[in-house]
Amino acid sequence: MSVTRTGEPSTEPDQPDPRRWWGLVIIALAQLMVVLDATIVNIALPSAQQDLGISDGNRQWVITAYTLAFGGLLLLGGRIADLVGRKRTFVVGLIGFAAASALGGAAVDSGMLFGARALQGAFAAVLAPSALSLLTTTFTDPKERGKAFGIYGALAGSGAAIGFIVGGVLTEYLNWRWCLYVNVPIAIIAVLGASALLHDRPGHRGARLDVPGVLLGCGGLLAIVYGFSEAEPRGWTDPFVLSLFAAGAVLLTVFVWWQTRAPSPLLPLHIIKDRNRAGCFLTMMLAIIGMFGLFLFMTYYLQVILGYSPMKTGFAFLPLTLAIITGSTQISARLMNRVPPRALMVPGMILASGGMLVLTQMTVDSSYTSEILPALLLMGLGMGLTFMPVFATATAGVAPQDAGVTSATVNTSQQVGGSIGTALLNTIATTSSTAYITAHLTRAADRDAITRAGIVHGYTVAIWWAAGIMLLAGLIAGLMVTAKPPKQHAPAETAVPEPVG
Questions:
Q1: What is d(CA 88, CA 19) in angstroms, rounded to the nearest whole number?
Q2: For the segment 46-93, what is each residue's pLDDT rounded down to a tens digit?
Q3: Where are the domains of the chain?
Q4: Which of 51-55, 115-119, 429-433 has the highest mean pLDDT?
Q5: For the segment 361-371, what is each residue's pLDDT rounded down to a tens digit?
Q6: CB–CB of 4/10 below 8 Å?
Q7: Which fold is adopted by the domain 17-199+266-483+490-495?
Q8: Per-residue b/e over 414-440, b at no fewer than 16 CB within 10 Å?
Q9: How far, in Å, CA of 98 to CA of 9, rounded?
């Protein structure tokens, strides 16, 4: 028998669940599906756009509808997991995600596709925090926890890149609809595995849904991301854009005020008042802003400028994926219990920013081997070093009743970063491209050459911004994340929540 924090005897066995590593396979499979779906449609987007008649101005919503619904509803999903139990919400999230994927694959117009992508994001918001909190409460031994989070961090970082490969193969050899249909068999396998392998604890009766908090938090995030997306066609000083930013700021301010008074707050402020967690959340959000910028621009650069096929474009991202996995499982997982988290996070962000700086030099004639590949490897190693200590540090030492919402906050920082990164950097790139083309186009100029050069110029300007944002992430990690290695600051029993029963 073990003893809980309150001194009550626990019925939990001291021995860990012998099937916990198979449970990790199921959790990792579900997480991979959720993460890669943020990017799997990127390569299929030109085909889907043509097939459904989506305008250039609206095509970004195929991606943003997913990340926005995902990020906006994650805190609610985390609280639902705490209320009704993690395994139950994990399974419900899987089933709903599969149904939404099938609906998107069968889309007959843009509205149906956008709606299905938003529905996917909503069910992912239920699924993701359940997955992370199940992982957090299953692996309590520091060494095993390091390995488990290394695998999880590798998937979280590389899933987006894997999405490009899978999307490229499916689009080239089947069609874009299979980028959505592929989730159905994956979800079925995960549901069967979860039913057999994952354990659960009862939901916490004291947890209640904070409906005003949901409306204020989701409304604020939606207004800000929508403002970034509208800045491209309207301009940064347009009254409508400025009003969206102002409305978002007001709603989020009221959200924070309400969380101090709500009987069951959606986001208990003590979670983000912790210096280490707050630093991890900010580091994650800023890192993802830069990373999604890379994905967006490199996809179009490889296909439009260099003329790669969808499948070749997908495989061009493979070195990035391998580098992330190497950084997570071979470096971070081995060092996490020996060095402070920021000793991994700060060098990781410097490496990733260095990779971005290499990409700022690309031109319409750049070589993949000598110019693009080194940048992808630096980016991958940097992200691999960063993701795993962020996940592990942000979720360590959390009370069981807050495990779901804390896990959700980590994922929220990812998805909000993805939404803002896509909208903000796309706006910067498009605006810079337009200015370049306008300045260089003359009657005697080669219109096609100037246009291609202008597009690449826009990408490099946005990548400069992304590199700076990643350096800022490293600075925040260095200043705010002051946690020591797990072995040095707490025994396993108090460093993480009790095992799942």
A1: 19
A2: 788 889 988 766 777 887 788 778 877 877 887 788 788 888 888 999
A3: 17-199+266-483+490-495, 210-265
A4: 115-119
A5: 999 999 999 88
A6: yes
A7: Growth Hormone; Chain: A; (1.20.1250)
A8: bbbbbbbbbbbbbbbbbbbbeebbeee
A9: 40
